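pls ignore typos typing on phone
guanosine-5'-monophosphate + seq
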Amino acid sequence: MAYDPDNIFARILRGTSPCIPVYEDEETLAFMDIMPEAEGHVLVVPKEPAETLFDLSERGAQACIRTTRLIGIAVKKALGKPGVYISQLNGAEAGQTVPHCHFHVIPCTAETTYHPHATVRADDEELREIAARIRACLA
Ligand code: 5GP
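k done
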């Protein structure tokens, strides 16, 4: 299927829709998920237009993994959680709801209770406060 340039992450990348940013470099952007599965849930997206990981260039995939690792280290420290759950869905059949490739980075413990995927809208002020804590922990 052709890439949809109007999907929400494409609009965030163009700056026509808002996001609460955590990190940006030439190839990737990381921002807070507005419907977090757990506190500190960050999304890492490539700037390259690609619907799934398999549509992404090797360079784009490498950039995503680099940023996902960086964010994983920072959320672990910022939220004081010993575990980090990372997921990445490809295609509606796998549960992907936004058709622009992305990685979910979710700090956790064995006791973490997860909200169901993309259902509970978080408070923007709280997300901004958590984003500031994560940014402060970026190496
Ligand atoms: P997917 O289902 O495609 O793997 O994940 C999409 C993610 O994007 C979900 O976790 C959902 O909560 C998040 N999401 C959906 N719309 C928006 C939005 O407008 N802004 C942000 N920051 N996250 C969104």
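The CA atoms of residues 14 and 47 lie 9 Å apart. Residues 58-79 form the longest helix (22 residues). more later
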